[in-house]
Design brief:
- The chain is an alpha+beta fold.
- The protein folds into two domains: 51 residues, no CATH class; 51 residues.
- A three-stranded antiparallel β-sheet has the order 1-2-3, covered by helices on one side.
- Strand 2 and strand 3 form a beta hairpin.
- The protein is elongated.
Length: 132
């Protein structure tokens, strides 16, 4: 059974700059079965892909422009990844983080009359504690 791979590429707009990132690779089998492989050195499927890529050519990614669903997914991911800053005992400036997280939550409303490519993501506050 032959295997082929295709890059998964996302176009993000961060602080006015277009940032392209390859987040994962799709493994495509002859029967049409697809498996998403994260770009992670410790992943055995990713290691298999790296070996395959030494002698084969990967299909280029379809260039995808950012949609409002992408913006919401990014927003939700940022909020999930920064939940820890709001926990009791977190040694960060919680007022700064609360304000940052509110700006993140408000992005869809803030940019409601614009396109997803107009979104400018705020800079995260420091993760260093006040006594660092």
């Amino acid at each position: 059974m032959a295997i082929r791979y295709k890059l998964n590429q996302n176009m993000l707009h961060v602080n006015g700059d277009i940032m392209s990132s390859v987040d994962s690779i799709t493994k495509i089998m002859d029967d049409g079965t697809k498996t998403c492989i994260p770009k992670c050195e410790s992943n055995s499927d990713y290691q298999e892909y790296l070996e395959w890529a030494k002698t084969n050519k990967i299909e280029p990614a379809d260039v995808k422009t950012t949609t409002w669903d992408d913006i919401r997914q990014i927003r939700d991911g940022i909020l999930k990844d920064t939940d820890w800053t709001m926990t009791t005992g977190a040694s960060v400036d919680q007022a700064q983080w609360a304000a940052y997280r509110q700006v993140i939550r408000d992005i869809p409303q803030t940019y409601k009359d614009k396109t997803p490519s107009d979104v400018v993501w705020p800079t995260q506050p420091s993760t260093k504690g006040p006594n660092s």
